[in-house]
Specification:
Length: about 325
Amino acid sequence: MSRSPEVTNDRPVAIIGAGLVGAGWAIAFARAGLAVRVYDANPDTAAAALPWAASQLDALHRHGLLEEAPQQIVARLTLAHSLAEAVDGAAYAQESVLERVDVKRRLMQDIDAVADETLVVGSSSSGIMASDFALDLAISPRVLIAHPVNPPYLVPVVELVPSRQTAPQTVAFADTLMRGIGQSVVHVRKEIEGFVLNRLQAALLREAWALQRDGIASCEDIDKTVRDGLGWRWSFMGPFETIDLNAPGGVADYAARLGPLYHSIARSRIGDGPWDEQLIARVEQDRRSQLPVDQLAARRDWREERLMEFAVARREAKRD
Ligand SMILES: NC(=O)c1ccc[n+]([C@@H]2O[C@H](COP(=O)([O-])OP(=O)(O)OC[C@H]3O[C@@H](n4cnc5c(N)ncnc54)[C@H](O)[C@@H]3O)[C@@H](O)[C@H]2O)c1
């Protein structure tokens, strides 16, 4: 691959799939100064992504989180009316289509048919491995997982996960690109379903559903335990550093004191099945009593506002 790790306005970024995550990626790339083409199989979704991005950029501006006027960033976003138009001359494409292996495999074949020999493709896949949908194509060495957290322009982490056919230069390219736009890069060394982030989230969710199923605590109290407890530390340190600080002698001391308890808890969940329908209905009823379905979008906006306030607070804290 003779390609420099640069995306410029001559070689823009293509957003393929402009739903919740794709539209968020568009903001992240454009904010960093890159030209971005937005494509979605549903033209209405693509068209809606641009005004939505403009409104989010206005909000970022209000919070003092932009280095230039929102209109200048919006001007870097253009609509593409076909996949071929989106990737034509692009250096990088971020795919954020449905989390279905057949949809992603088909898309990779379609991209393969129209891409030049330098395009790099990052997939937002939440847990499906690239080796399940991007093998044995001309483009395979240039495809990897670039899994964000929603929304990617407000939560910085991105997991880079190569398939077994991804070239090392592709990982290096994505690393440079993602750092360049301000993301925090995690390298997942071996492919595994769910990567790191969603495996960690799965462990927490498995326990949350089980506690709710067994009547141990309400949804609200389980959420509160994370929001007003674990989450306070998690905004600036991870689980290993947390336990290292929670025993006088550090992590080995913590393992000696509490390792058996954690093992016993893990053993108690070995036989757990999938989330069952009755349980889902109960949690749905509980959540809807807190937040009617027609208020989900407004609550998402509320969340983005809180994340912006949080970003400002973190920036101030780093100055100390
Ligand atoms: N929602 C999250 O919290 C989150 C977080 C990280 C990663 N992801 C992953 O990002 C991806 C997208 O998720 P989302 O939440 O944005 O879903 P979404 O349903 O909001 O958006 C998916 C979009 O893809 C479009 N699409 C489907 N097939 C297409 C094709 N062949 N070409 C172009 N567009 C196509 C759809 O029209 C839709 O607008 C999934 O893989 C998901 O697992 C989601």
